[in-house]
Amino acid sequence: MRARDLLADFPTVGLDTPVIEAARLLADQDLPGLIVVDADGLPFTILPGTQVLRMAVPGYCQDDPALARVIDEAHADLFLRQLSERTVREALPRERRELPVADLNATVLELAALMARTHSPLVAVVAGGRLHGAVTLQALLDRAVEA
């Protein structure tokens, strides 16, 4: 089985897309992450949903989870609102990691190794200078368990 057999259309966002729009896309489509594309429509990076949360959750709550408990429920429910003025570019980690990109002929093991190595829940599939879609962790595991 190859990447082309597991490939699915996958939504993308640009670097200047508001983070709140990216969060809505993640939530509305139950996605593990998003492919961030450059001006040419090619993968720039993968934005895991957890990175969006990292940007929304106050640093002091990440550093000391006990502090999250002292925030009243009314204010705790609003933590994503602060993302309205920020862009996907701002949500990206400062250090660049290996980009999880494969071609149409990548095997299941190659895809799994790439996901594991890059800690990414999806792999962008590029061939012929264009993005064809993505292979998600869920699709990969579904097929691997079937076999």
TrEMBL record:
One family name in Pfam for this protein: CBS
Every CBS domain range: 9-41, 96-143
InterPro entries found in the cross-reference section: CBS_dom, CBS_dom_sf
Superkingdom, taxonomy of origin: Bacteria
Protein name: CBS domain-containing protein
Organism of derivation: Nonomuraea dietziae
